[in-house]
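Incident log entry.

Two folding requests arrived from the same account within the same minute. Monitoring flagged them as a possible duplicate submission, but the sequences differ. Recording both here for audit purposes.

Request one:
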Amino acid sequence: MDDCDSPCSPHGNALPKALIRSDIWFADGNIVLIADSAAFKVHHGQLERHSEVFRDLFSVPQPVDQSLVDGCPSVELYDRPTDLYHLLIALYDGIYFQKHIAADFVAIAAVLRLSTKYFIEHLRERCIARLAIDWPISLPEWDRREHDGTDSEGRYNPREIFPHPILMLKLAHELNLDTFLPSAFYDLSRYGPSKILTGTRGPPPIFASSTTVLDV
């Protein structure tokens, strides 16, 4: 692609010497998205179908001498590789964080972040609905949340189901999700000072050390 405005840029002669091939690599794909050094071979029709931003992006004429990756044109996106990975999984497989566990938050935040950026409204709405379950705005819904954090034997263990409130506070600040601030701050107030200072772990990397490297 050339003359492409943010959020992407053409590779052209600036392509890195090596790219890491992600697990999202369709043999019949016709576009390679690159985030940092991670490459995703997908179908531009699938992206255009859900996002007017991608539709406008792919309507830009391609130069005849454009560098190809695995035989396909490539576009660099200024997104975190993990975020793009989760967004593409959500687009191809549907919303896939079905189990209500704290670890879901990484995928929810990633899909929400990029569905907002790329105007994919149906994914954004589902992410917001899920966050509303974890971070309710009414007392009855908070009581329901407390009940959900109690197992069948009466043990209260919400940390396996709900993410650390610091994660929600950070996401709320990033995406202006003020609705969820009261419940997140209240939940954080129930942590001891040492746990607040310790914070929480970041998401694990999506690429293993054995991931395929592409020469381009």
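Request two (distinct sequence, not a duplicate):
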Amino acid sequence: MAKVQPSLTEIDPVWHRICEEAETAIADEPLMGGLIHAGVLHHATFERALAYRLSMKLASPEMSEQILREIADAAYAEAPALPTAARADLVAIYDRDPACHRFMQPLLYFKGFQAVQSYRLGHWLWKNDRRDLAYFVQMRVSEIFGVDIHPAARIGKGIMIDHAHSIVVGETAVVGDNVSMLHSVTLGGTGKEDDDRHPKIGNGVLIGAGAKVLGNITVGHCSRIAAGSVVLEDVPPMKTVAGVPARIVGEAGCAQPSLAMHQLLGE
């Protein structure tokens, strides 16, 4: 007897769960059937669904959905690390955001997830010397999502940007794995210098709402930056900083602040 090969959904638990949730959502709200079928159930793989969703969001009279979808399909075929990072980002949002109750939500509704995946597409274009297309993606992400990430910036996986309003990440910024940041965060420069001028954020860092991290400085792994802080100097690993300008006010409070999401200074 021939061995039965597992389906794609069976070997991709993230995609399998999204499809199950999509079926349930349509049963609960039939008026969403067209959108959910087009965004999820019409596609055989997570990669195809993600390419479709991003192309629909980024399309404009200047660049069609079809062209953008072909670009995304090519990127995911050539660089499988991109959809792998997208899965890690999606799971991170589900684990850390109390407003996220289904895996389907970030893919269809959350602009933080969609903006980061669009940035990843632009970064792939940038690395392949397709700079004008990369700038176009950056422009559309800024216009549609209110998130401005330079395509040359380097961002790890397991990223959660909660609410994702007024986020700015500069050209030479580096963000590690499993980082969480809230709305209105800036990873910016301090002047017109044309060299390495943006922050380097370690793994497991939590950056509170409205925080500004400026200049070519290092924020050590598993540290916390309190909401509204202005960080102008290096932050040691596993510390909490707060204030304008930010100063060390204590330990990080846990092994990985970005996972725990505790933002009160007493915690």
